[in-house]
Amino acid sequence: ELKVEQNPLFLSMQEGKNYTIYCNYSTTSDRLYWYRQDPGKSLESLFVLLSNGAVKQEGRLMASLDTKARLSTLHITAAVHDLSATYFCAVDLLLNYGGSQGNLIFGKGTKLSVKP
Amino acid sequence: EADIYQTPRYLVIGTGKKITLECSQTMGHDKMYWYQQDPGMELHLIHYSYGVNSTEKGDLSSESTVSRIRTEHFPLTLESARPSHTSQYLCASSGPWGGSEQYFGPGTRLTVT
After folding, report:
1. Strands A85-94 and A110-115, how do they pair?
2. Which chain B residues are Cβ-neighbours of A111 within 8 angstroms?
3. Which residues of A touch B104 (CB under 8 A)?
4. Which residue of B has its CA nearest to A86?
5. Where are the beta strands (DSSP E) in A1-116?
């Protein structure tokens, strides 16, 4: 059974600081997704990571994937208040032949609060 | 513009009523999903479909039912709403060319009184 663990689950940080959110998963996969959710809203796609060593950057956020370690990181650089949201990682459960099962397994989310 | 739609966005309804939450997508995606999410909490997959006439139950047991008669449409029905059904319901879809990336609708916030 594929399990996806995020940590921390709650993160309160000061504006201008850097921090990293971690996403560990328990079985082989090379497809990982990061989503953002604002309070009361739906999920918005942030990053799609489809191979070992993949790195994507958008503004102050950078995501990476290490399939050997079964680990993805979401790094926040010089945080600003607008980044306050809940961030979810999700992993594709691959079939034996490497194809996608189609369903994603989501972590519990990391609730980020950036304070002035 | 290709998109995924959910209606209604907000619904307040009394106990015992039958409700249908609508989800439609114009992206031609074959896979569609329903998630239930309480405020600030994790997502729970309640139903999914891999194509027309295909429906499966998800990880979280739900009293709701779904149907998939058309590719673009994946409605969710509660025959008799209860206060325990109060939650946000998110619909998502994914397609072969996008791999497994799921695109989410805006959600329906349901309150059962």
Report:
1. antiparallel
2. 40
3. 35, 42-44
4. B40
5. 4-7, 10-14, 19-25, 32-37, 43-49, 55-58, 61-66, 71-76, 85-94, 100-106, 110-115
Averaged pLDDT for residues B72-76: 97
Whole-number Å distance between alpha carbons of A59 and A57: 6
Give B-chain residues touching A102 at CB under 8 angstroms: 31, 48, 50, 94, 100
Q: Which residue of B has its CA nearest to A100?
A: B100
* CA-closest candidate to residue B3, choices A99, A17, A42: A42
pLDDT of residue B110: 97
For residue B100, give the nearest of A88, A100, A111 by CB distance: A100
State the number of CA atoms in the 13 A half-sphere of A13 facing the CB. Answer: 25
Instruction: Give the separation between CA B32 and CA B73, rounded to whole angstroms.
Output: 9
- Pair A62, A7: CB distance under 8 Å: no
Whether residue B40 lies within 8 A of chain A, CB to CB, comes out as yes
What are the tens digits of pLDDT across the range B30-59?
A: 999 999 999 889 999 999 999 999 999 998
Beta carbons within 8 Å of B63's beta carbon, 6+ residues apart: B78, B79, B82, B85
Q: What is the pLDDT of residues A26-84, one digit of tens each?
A: 988 778 999 999 999 999 999 999 888 999 999 999 999 999 999 999 999 999 999 99
Residue A114 tokens, joined: 């950036």
